[in-house]
Amino acid sequence: MAAEWHEDAVQVGIIGGSGLYDLEALTDVREVRVTTPYGDPSDALVVGSLGGIRVAFLPRHGRRHQIVPTNVPARANIYALKSLGVRQLISVSAVGSLREDFRPGDLVTPDQIVDRTRNRNGTTFFDENLVVHVPFGEPFCGRLRELLGSAARHATDTAVHAAGTYCCMEGPQFSTRAESELYRSWGLDIIGMTAVPEAKLAREAELCYAGLALVTDYDCWRADSEDVSASAVTEVMRRNSAAAKASMATLLASLDPEPKCGCQDALATSVITPLDAVSETTRDRNRLLVGRYFAAQEPKPAA
Question: Is 2-297 assigned to CATH 3.20.20.80?
Answer without folding.
Answer: no
